[in-house]
Design brief:
The complex is a heterotrimer of chains A (352), B (275) and C (262).
Chain A lengths: L4 E10 L2 E11 L4 E5 L6 H9 L6 E6 L2 E2 L10 E4 L11 H11 L4 H14 L15 H13 L5 E5 L7 H18 L2 E6 L2 H7 L2 E6 L2 E6 L1 H6 L4 H6 L4 E11 L2 E6 L4 E5 H4 L5 E6 L4 E4 L6 E10 L4 E7 L2 E7 L10 E6 L4 E4 L3
Parallel strand pairs in A: 3-8, 3-9, 6-7, 7-8
Antiparallel strand pairs in A: 1-2, 1-4, 4-5, 9-10, 11-12, 11-14, 12-13, 14-20, 15-19, 16-17, 16-19, 17-18
Helix pairs in contact in A: 2-3, 2-4, 3-4, 4-5
Chain B lengths: L1 H33 L7 H8 L1 H34 L2 H16 L2 H12 L4 H9 L12 H25 L3 H9 L4 H29 L3 H6 L7 H11 L3 H29 L5
Helix pairs in contact in B: 1-12, 2-12, 3-7, 3-9, 4-7, 5-7, 7-9, 8-9, 9-12, 11-12
Chain C lengths: L6 H25 L16 H8 L1 H34 L7 H5 L2 H4 L2 H14 L5 H25 L5 H8 L4 H12 L1 H17 L4 H4 L7 H11 L3 H24 L8
Helix pairs in contact in C: 1-13, 2-13, 3-7, 3-10, 6-7, 7-10, 8-9, 10-13
Classes of the chains: A alpha+beta (352), B mainly alpha (275), C mainly alpha (262).
Chain lengths: 352, 275, 262
């Protein structure tokens, strides 16, 4: 019932604009993969290509052994959950859920039984005869999910399915979708612009930008070891400091940032450090120390209270940086300080 | 304090115009039919006992109904094609539908005089084809009136339904396809049901429009195919039978209002978007 | 959606559009024909029937009358319809619900019944001149366009913009002209055009209200067709179509034509 999805060298245009170029992606059977990126990155285009609503200019889409590339949309057998649910307003909840079965020529008792079982699963049995217009956002979402699941597709796709729900409901639905997907073991593609959502729900995440995959990895790897500056910025490394190595001594490396400020970094902590690199640091990975301590010299600016620490905007010779200091020792604006990176919250990137 | 009356102040001139010069005169027309010295319903008894006038009413209903059904069928299919046409072509098609609509009723009916006449284009064409030996009489028949009426109202239907069809979100069609519906199944099970309210609106516009038309039946039907509109004119301006004319007018108002109210009620019940 | 349309459906639409456009082409052909009778395809090309239109006093007069009435009726309808549309949206809560229904009534009443009633109760009873009753009748049939088209546009207007302008020191009337009106400009243009075209083409109301010496162009055309069947009518029709083309060009330049489909 579940199949791996293979996308090979897919290209697509909107008019003259190339939105996807030589796009390749391998999704294992039963895996849930998110396509994550800002609007216009090509994630929705990819989904529409897989669903068959757009035609690629080149490339292939395979689901298991079947080549989907030239198959019309209605014969692809993919369960789709739309951003605005796309429930048929003239059909009841039960009729909406049964729509796909009807198209497959499944009639009468069997259809009714499968619809009833599915409604039971999404806890909508009581609303079976309502029209979608009479449902809340969360209920509509569950109808959409039920409608896509009941046809038992080998591939499920979600197009920002949670973006129309309020924050609380969103977290709940997220868990429901994940559980449902786990239980069925259906290969799934999940499109979203919300990083937290993608990371919490997915086995692997493809971070996209301008029609290309910037990195395709598990959430843990993406979060801790971004492959490039784009991904680093995307997953919250606020500070990207270009540096070059001026001296090496064993594992210890002396690196200089723009403006001449120097840091000593240990390759034991950071891994191999090339001669030119970018130091990526989250705000909590850049510690505010007194001016006599080692680190990047900085002048503190705006301070904000985060509950577990203070965050400072800092002016440094290497440009503005964001750093954090302990609650016990609030620093005054305009005070001189040093910023010391903490290896656990930092990463070494290739220069852009 | 002026604020409280600002709304009234601004809407009053238009309201007064409609009330004094539309509602009152039309109401007066209807009222006179009940003020007959022979009794309140005497003019209606006259109307319905006259087999000629009954025939006129029946013919008008028939022409309007047939026109509506044809316009619905033609308009819906055409609107579907227009709504799915690529951008540039769609604009051209819409212009092609808007242009006849903005061209007057008289001009558009006149065109059919040239086409359907004894020496008209269609007869010449049929003679040339050898389909017929001598010119057919096509003018002044019910058919000629219906053809011209369909011509008159199809653009209106197309434009109404293009609006409705474009209002159906693409997502619904995609959802339908993703669930395995063939294009024709999507058309029957999703597009058509969602267009029904629009079809009703279009049907009301076409039915009331053709039921109350004057110029087209006058030009293409003449005396022989008298309808309510031409009967009203004939009673009022030729026979100077104002009571009879008022009766015809009252029946036209009643039928129009009944159709509009009845159909909007049905439309409201059928409209899934309204819940 | 990439699912292609069925070829039969496309063929059907092509036939329909041929059916829509062909009669108008036929009129154009008949108008330029160098014959004394109506025929298509034209035999010889001549502009003499266009000259003839302007040589005939009845057509000259009715063209002028029709334009005068159309401008006056459209002007009046906008003058009273714009404030009414504004009031219906701005003061929605204060005004009773039925008030907006009042402006739907002219559509509910068959035009021919309105024409007859105006003749009976206004022209004859109040002994009003023919021209004035025609203007009244036309104002009534075009008023719904003014109110409804502008109202639809105003219903999407955010009146807090107006409040913002007033709070910044702009007097209410000035605010209306500098803030509200520019935002519904296209609706006003659309209302004007629809109203003007409706008035120019009207038959059913004018039918009863025209009188000795005062008639409108469509009524004159009707009268002429019933007696003569010559290319003059085709030429007048072409002139009317040119007017429509002119109006559509204005729409295209100001709003884009697809606007009319909404």
């Amino acid at each position: 019932m579940t199949e791996p999805l293979t996308i090979e060298d897919l290209s697509a245009h909107y008019g003259k604009v190339q939105v996807l170029e030589d796009f390749s992606l391998q999704i294992a059977a039963g895996e849930l993969v998110s396509l994550l990126g800002a609007s216009g990155c090509g994630k929705t285009t990819t989904l529409r290509l897989i669903a068959g609503f757009l035609e690629p200019t080149s490339g292939r889409i395979r689901l298991g052994d079947q080549d989907l590339t030239r198959l019309p949309a209605h014969r692809r057998n993919i369960g789709l959950v739309f951003q605005n649910y796309a429930l048929f307003p003239h059909l009841t909840v039960a009729e909406n859920v049964g729509f796909g079965l009807k198209q497959r020529g499944i009639g009468g008792a069997e259809r009714a039984a499968r619809v009833a079982a599915m409604l039971e699963r999404v806890e909508l049995t009581d609303l079976a005869s309502r029209l979608p217009g009479a449902l809340s956002g969360g209920q509509r979402q569950r109808v959409a999910l039920a409608r896509a699941l009941v046809i038992e597709p080998p591939l499920l796709m979600f197009d920002e399915p949670l973006s129309n729900l309020d924050a609380k409901l969103r977290v709940g639905m997220r868990a429901e979708i994940r559980q449902m997907q786990r239980a069925n073991g259906t290969t799934s593609v999940f499109v979203t612009h919300d990083q937290e959502e993608a990371f919490s729900i997915s086995d692997r995440v493809a971070i996209m930008q301008a029609g290309r995959i910037m990195q395709f990895d598990t959430p843990e790897t993406l979060y801790q070891r971004p492959a490039n500056a784009f991904v680093a910025r995307f997953v919250g490394f606020e500070n990207l400091i270009p540096m070059r190595v001026v001296a090496r001594e064993g594992e210890s490396v002396e690196a200089e940032a723009e403006g001449g400020a120097r840091l000593s970094l240990s390759q034991a902590e950071y891994g191999a450090i090339p001669d030119a690199f970018v130091l990526g640091a989250r705000a909590e990975g850049l510690l505010v120390l007194p001016p006599e301590a080692p680190g990047l010299p900085a002048t503190l600016g705006l301070r904000s209270y985060l509950g577990r620490a203070y965050q400072y905007l800092c002016a440094t010779p290497a440009g503005p940086l964001t750093a954090q200091g302990p609650l016990g020792a609030p620093q005054m604006p305009a005070a001189a300080a040093r910023l010391q990176p903490l290896a656990a919250q930092c990463c070494i990137l290739a220069p852009e | 304090m002026l604020k409280r009356f600002a709304g009234w102040l601004m809407s009053t001139p238009a309201t007064l115009l409609v009330v004094l010069l539309l509602i009152v005169p039309v109401a007066a027309t209807i009222a006179t039919t009940f003020g007959d010295p022979r009794g309140p319903f005497a003019p209606y008894v006259d109307f319905f006992t006259s087999s000629f006038r009954r025939a006129v009413l029946w013919r008008t209903v028939e022409i309007a109904s047939i026109t509506t059904v044809i316009a619905l069928f033609v308009g819906f299919l055409t609107a579907f094609v227009v709504s799915r046409a690529p951008g540039r072509l769609k604009s051209i098609l819409i212009i092609a539908a808007v242009f006849p609509l903005l061209t007057g009723v008289v001009v558009r009916s006149f065109a059919w005089l040239i086409i359907l006449g004894k020496n008209g284009i269609l007869n010449n064409f049929l003679l040339w084809l050898g389909v017929t030996e001598k010119p057919l009489t096509m003018l002044y028949t019910e058919g000629s009136v219906i053809v011209a009426m369909v011509y008159l109202f199809v653009p209106l239907m197309i434009l109404t339904l293009v609006g409705v069809l474009e209002g159906i979100p693409d997502d619904l069609l995609q959802a339908s396809a993703s669930l395995g519906a063939t294009p024709s199944a999507t058309f029957r099970q999703v597009v058509f049901p969602l267009a029904v309210p629009g079809l009703i609106v279009g049907a009301v516009l076409v039915f009331t429009g053709s039921f109350t038309s004057y110029a087209t039946p006058q030009l293409l039907g003449g005396e022989r195919q008298m309808v309510m509109g031409t009967l009203l004119y004939q009673r009022a301006m030729v026979a100077f039978d104002w009571q009879g004319a008022s009766t015809v007018a009252a029946i036209m108002v009643v039928v129009t209002v009944a159709v509009v109210l009845g159909m909007t009620r049905i439309a409201r019940r059928l409209n899934p978007m309204s819940t | 959606m990439k699912q292609p349309l069925h070829p039969l459906l496309i063929a059907f639409a092509v036939v329909v559009f041929f059916f829509l456009v062909a009669p108008l082409v036929i009129i154009l052909g008949a108008a330029v024909s160098d014959t004394t009778f109506l025929t298509f395809p034209p035999r010889g090309i001549s502009g003499r029937w266009f000259v003839k239109v302007f040589e005939m006093a009845a057509f000259r007069r009715t063209i002028v009358t029709s334009l005068q009435i159309a401008f006056l009726a459209t002007g009046f309808a906008l003058l009273i319809g714009l404030p009414a549309a504004y009031a219906l949206n701005r003061f929605r809560i204060q005004l009773p619900h039925w008030l907006s229904t009042v402006f739907v009534l002219p559509i509910l009443v068959p035009e021919i019944v309105l024409g007859f009633s105006l003749l009976k109760s206004v022209q004859v009873a109040a002994d009003l001149p023919v021209f004035s009753t025609l203007v009244i009748g036309h104002t009534l049939i075009v008023l719904p366009y003014a109110v409804r088209v502008i109202s639809a546009s105003l219903s999407a207007f955010d009146f807090s913009m107006e409040e913002a302008a007033v709070s910044l020191g702009s007097p209410p009337l000035k605010t209306f002209f500098t803030i509200v009106l520019p935002n519904v400009r296209s609706a006003v243009i659309a209302a004007f055009i629809l109203a003007f075209i409706t008035s120019i083409n009207d038959v059913s109301v004018s039918l009863f209200l025209t009188g000795p010496g005062v008639s409108t162009l469509p009524i004159q055309i009707l009268a002429h067709v019933e007696q003569f069947f010559d290319p003059v009518i085709a030429s007048v029709s072409v002139l009317l179509m040119l007017l429509t083309v002119g109006v559509m060009a204005v729409v295209e330049l100001t709003l884009g034509l697809t606007f009319l489909a909404k």
